[in-house]
Amino acid sequence: MPGDDQRPILILASGSPRRRELLAQLGVPFTVVIAGVTEYEEADADPRSLVAHNSALKADWVAARHPGAIVLGADTTVFLEDSVLNKPRDRAEARGMLSRLAGRTHTVFTGLSIRGAGAALNFDTHVESRVTFKPLGNADIDAYLARVNTLDKAGGYSIQEHSELIVAGYTGSFTNIMGLPLETTKQILTRCGLLS
């Protein structure tokens, strides 16, 4: 039960406000510690390896500094035709990403890493979802960029903000596309004894 003195604290090793909002939906008390790491973001990286590396990097960094806690690390990227699309550096790059995604189907990968209780909790997995974009002209992209701040979002878009302007459909976990697959996260936290 929340507040049980025997239950270890859960730390989310992410500064993403969307991940905080999503994790809060599970009803597990947690704190946030942002890992002081440099994430791997090469455009030609294997997306599964990239999100696994980054989620583990964040979780390991925080767990080393909070040995009594259970730490959840996560990392999300968008993958299209052998290219990783991470967070755009500026509006022009966001526009370019949306143009590339237009009329096509891409994959969203999220890596999840749990660390804690010494070596007893050391678990990594990833979740994949697929998103199909509508065909988009310049005016469509302008309309979307006028409504959504895309600079902190992999692929330069947000599935939960004005997606009717750009998204034709998706398969898999919606919350994975947002940045934290709640179905899998719930299973992991149940395994850790934080949920029943």
Please name the defining characteristics of this protein.
196 residues, alpha/beta, Maf protein, 7-stranded mixed beta sheet, 6 helices, 7 strands, 32% helix, elongated
Task: List the topology elements.
Elements: E1 10-12, H1 17-24, E2 30-32, H2 47-65, E3 70-80, E4 83-85, H3 91-101, E5 105-116, E6 121-133, H4 138-147, E7 167-171, H5 174-178, H6 182-191
Parallel strand pairs: 1-2, 1-3
Antiparallel strand pairs: 3-4, 3-5, 5-6, 6-7
Can you walk through the features of this model?
The chain has 196 residues and is of the alpha/beta class. It has one domain: Maf protein (Alpha-Beta Complex), CATH 3.90.950. It is built from six helices and seven strands. Strands 1, 2, 3, 4, 5, 6 and 7 form a seven-stranded mixed sheet that branches. The longest helix is centred in the first third of the chain and has 19 residues, at 47-65.
Looking at the overall shape, the CATH architecture is: Alpha-Beta Complex
Strand content: 25-35%
> Can you tell me the overall shape?
elongated
Alpha-beta content class: alpha/beta
Task: Give the radius of gyration.
Answer: 17 Å
- How many H/I helices? 6
Helix content: 25-40%
